[in-house]
């Protein structure tokens, strides 16, 4: 690769940044070396086009040392076509060409794994945290994690170190401590830290190659399990047991120190050439560590040395990705492995025109067919990784056998001297580039064995055997099959019922099917009861780590087929405001449903003050109302098939840890076809929440809107709609509402337990108007659920001329019996019962 190519790839544009808190003053340099707390910077194209004094480009903090040709800045960065940006420290020649500066080079970066887009913000917050977000108050991308550490200001130093200073100029955080892929003069790499190369010259993502400082020197690895060592520079002097090792890049050399406390003389120094301060060193995606220097004459960056190659003597062919995966490097050329005495090809080039992208096995190696594994022999080929020695395989055959026995072994390299039976066997779990060697030059022999998957037919002798075997097997198999079929047909007649069970096991798109035993186990024999309804009880259980609610339907009359059909329908409905059906069980007469567990139980607990709980504040109530509305809206309007819930009431609204509300027991009601939406004829639901049209005519999803209106009033008033403990005239909430609405005394309806509610009177009254809209007698005058959502979002207002003469079907029905023990008329589906 020529240096010219390299630079073309790294061209980078510096992007304009506007300091919102400190607008630039015309005629003054507006970017300072330091910034104060509580400052926000936005990356914004529109604002960027404002012509600033120093052109189109601006950094966040910038410093131009007097003593050097180079300046450092921290700001937003991109590579063309500039859709994505990183927050970086970059180095650039402080020429007149700045700020339209194509000569900038990144030496540190905060967010290479997740670049940000337009309108991203960087903020030095009031509590001293440096925070990068997707947009203002958007997703957190990166942070220095320094809040509560008394940070006073941010500064870029003369060396290009981005520092957060605390009290008395103490360094709280610095970019030098978190190097990415480059070092600038004066920067150290401490023991345990690493430089990690990018994935490719055009891809900022972190790549697989890194170098790190360990106690005994500098090591270079390519990531895999375990990591493979491709480079190692061991200290020639004795290692200290106590002091950590570090390497420091000073102009012109890499110095290795065994103490980090005082600079002193390095324990070892790798001199490159004449000292210059206009340099930086970078680990590149091909694993090379290169030294770059600003040349004022050109003017451009030039690569002045390939440090690993020139000073640490790593061979060109010894880099892990020089020929891609499985490629063999022969003095800079790449070829695919092949077996000279065989016509079959086991490897092919990934890209015919680019041999350095490597090779891929024609048949991938599969651990399932371990008997079809063979080793492809490559003579005079070695592998770079020298770390994974198999101790008890000193001769060639043991080495090969060890690899064939272990599925994670993808190749072995066997290195030996004159005596074949005293070698070193190294196993490789992920094969990167191989290299061919000349034994007389390197003074050792080496063979590599690559594991390949053979297709059994490729071997002629085996083929013959297979044919004979195959014919015999086929005959036997046919015979056995005939017998099995005969038995099966007889059984089938006998056990029709049993067959039915099998038949439904594999319906596509179904929730998980559990055995009764499994559910008994996970609910600890149905011991923790969460609640009870007319049609069964709900128990708490645990499947793996997940808490679930298991509903056991009692007195199941429904056929398995109908049950499974309903389960399939419910299982296919997913929305954040609907309780998720996880699984079911249909075994013999047992019918169970497994739902996600909702830790705060049902809404009635919270609005009727059953548990001496504190009143919910207005904000939480609004959130719950919105959640219910969205859940219902989904069922009515967004689902593939229109679904009316038909049993909306607080008992069927469940709350999670954070008071997010979800509807339960939906879909247990009859589905309404989109075309003929008036189909329900049998009365159902729960008294108190029944719409007037239940008494008279055809039922549509508008009955849910009525019930929603009732629930809304309950949430606002903090009481049950039919409450026998109240004085006679106010037993029925809806009757009371009619009276108060007609007399303009709506304020009386607000929950008195909550001061927060009382202080939000205005908003509460608006919510009551929405409730009254939903309670209109004439179902066609009620809003649709999507209109309700719009009103709640403030995008629409409530209909003006409301009819306050709410007719109460529930008073008629409740007159027939005691409302608290009343149970609804026969249900169509056993699944549809209230909790
Ligand atoms: C930071 O604050 C100091 C004093 O409070 C002020 O002198 C300086 O100009 C401020 N720096 C910037 C970049 O606003
Ligand atoms: C960035 O913000 C501006 C103004 O606030 C806005 O007009 C523009 O649409 C936003 N761009 C993106 C991609 O969000
Ligand atoms: C901290 O550093 C700044 C600038 O480098 C300097 O002006 C200030 O005097 C220093 N303060 C202390 C307490 O050393
Ligand atoms: C960048 O590299 C990563 C990791 O190798 C890869 O997942 C991603 O697809 C690459 N992105 C582009 C744009 O090539
Ligand atoms: C290195 O140091 C250890 C103890 O720290 C000592 O035992 C050993 O002899 C030393 N080796 C050399 C080569 O100096
Ligand atoms: C770096 O180079 C400059 C001259 O360019 C020299 O003054 C300085 O002493 C050098 N630093 C080191 C650590 O060699
Ligand atoms: C090819 O040669 C290798 C060793 O040189 C030997 O082990 C293998 O059996 C040979 N394969 C064929 C198909 O002759
Ligand atoms: C298989 O090889 C891997 C990697 O070399 C090694 O970690 C593992 O212990 C080996 N397994 C056995 C059973 O030898
Ligand atoms: C390589 O092996 C051959 C015998 O197979 C032997 O003659 C030769 O000396 C070995 N070469 C080295 C460098 O050990
Ligand atoms: C090779 O080494 C083994 C044991 O280390 C020894 O028995 C054998 O004689 C040696 N062979 C040769 C040719 O040196």
Please describe the structure with a list of short key phrases separated by commas or semicolons:
single chain; 835 residues; Agglutinin, subunit A; six-stranded mixed sheet; five-stranded antiparallel sheet; 45 strands; 26% strand; flat; disordered N terminus; disordered C terminus; binds 2-acetamido-2-deoxy-beta-D-glucopyranose
CATH class of the largest domain: Mainly Alpha
Lateral arrangement of strands in the main beta sheet: 38-42-43-41-40-39
What overall form do the CA principal axes indicate? Answer: flat
CATH superfamily of the largest domain: Transferase(Phosphotransferase) domain 1
**Arithmetic mean of pLDDT:** 79
Would you spell out the secondary-structure blueprint of this structure?
Blueprint: H1 3-10, E1 13-14, E2 18-19, E3 34-36, E4 39-42, H2 45-48, E5 61-63, E6 70-78, E7 86-93, E8 105-109, E9 121-124, E10 130-133, E11 140-143, E12 153-156, E13 162-165, E14 171-174, E15 182-183, E16 188-190, E17 194-200, E18 203-214, E19 217-222, E20 228-234, E21 246-250, E22 253-257, E23 268-271, E24 279-283, E25 289-295, E26 300-306, H3 307-310, E27 328-330, E28 333-335, E29 347-349, E30 359-361, E31 373-379, E32 381-383, E33 389-390, H4 396-405, E34 411-416, E35 424-428, E36 434-436, H5 439-442, E37 445-453, H6 460-494, H7 496-503, E38 512-513, H8 516-522, E39 529-533, E40 536-543, E41 546-553, H9 560-571, E42 581-587, E43 590-596, H10 603-607, H11 618-638, E44 653-655, E45 661-663, H12 693-696, H13 702-717, H14 733-742, H15 755-759, H16 761-774, H17 785-793, H18 809-814
Parallel strand pairs: 27-36, 38-42
Antiparallel strand pairs: 1-6, 2-4, 3-12, 4-9, 5-6, 6-7, 7-8, 9-10, 10-11, 12-13, 13-14, 15-24, 16-21, 17-18, 18-19, 19-20, 21-22, 22-23, 24-25, 25-26, 27-28, 29-30, 31-37, 32-36, 33-35, 34-35, 34-37, 39-40, 40-41, 41-43, 42-43, 44-45
This protein binds 2-acetamido-2-deoxy-beta-D-glucopyranose (10 copies).
